[in-house]
């Protein structure tokens, strides 16, 4: 893993930038980074791939979280409790993920993406405006339960976590896409941190390539967050649908054996 050629480094950097941009706008950058890491380092273990992906992602989510905070000012009374339990869930998920073959999850992820995409397309007005479905403590409890469940998933596997967070905040809780993206970034930072709490002490991170991708992820996250804020919820919704379709094609092809 120490001798990296320039072509591989450039491809990983490109994947990191693209993943950072997608993550900042709608989430799901791991579905760009993980396949890139798998192609670049076919001999790496699943834990190494997941850990290196998390190192790159946490830098990008930190950047986009700060950008969203400055420009959108999401309500932290929901975001912080959600992030706290998401961290705990991700720690538990990472411990589980060390012992689970990742390929077993592809069919589950595919079904989830299809359901999310179909629901979003079927409701054109979804996510244009905030219309919260829960009040007071119920709102916080639902947010925390959502954060915990998705946190476990992110620690165990990860791809699409940001998209699932955005969809849960929009479809389940009633947020507009832009505000949902802002809150999702804070929770996604916590899930990345939770997974790294397990992966870093275990020595699973490929640091050299991870830091190269992290720099690119920061740039992508910054550009993506500014783009989303400038263009608004309609733009985020369009990108969300396009990204979901791309993910469905990518994972569906893997499940059906169209490509490896």
UniProtKB/TrEMBL annotation:
UniProt topology in membrane: Multi-pass membrane protein
Principal location listed in the UniProt entry: membrane
Top-level taxonomic group: Bacteria
UniProt xrefs under InterPro entries: TM_pro_TauE-like, TSUP
Transmembrane region(s): 80-98, 104-122, 142-175, 205-223, 235-259
GO terms for cellular component: plasma membrane
Compartmental location: Cell membrane
Pfam families recorded: TauE (PF01925)
Keywords: Cell membrane, Membrane, Transmembrane, Transmembrane helix, Transport
Family in the record: Belongs to the 4-toluene sulfonate uptake permease (TSUP) (TC 2.A.102) family.
Name of this protein: Probable membrane transporter protein
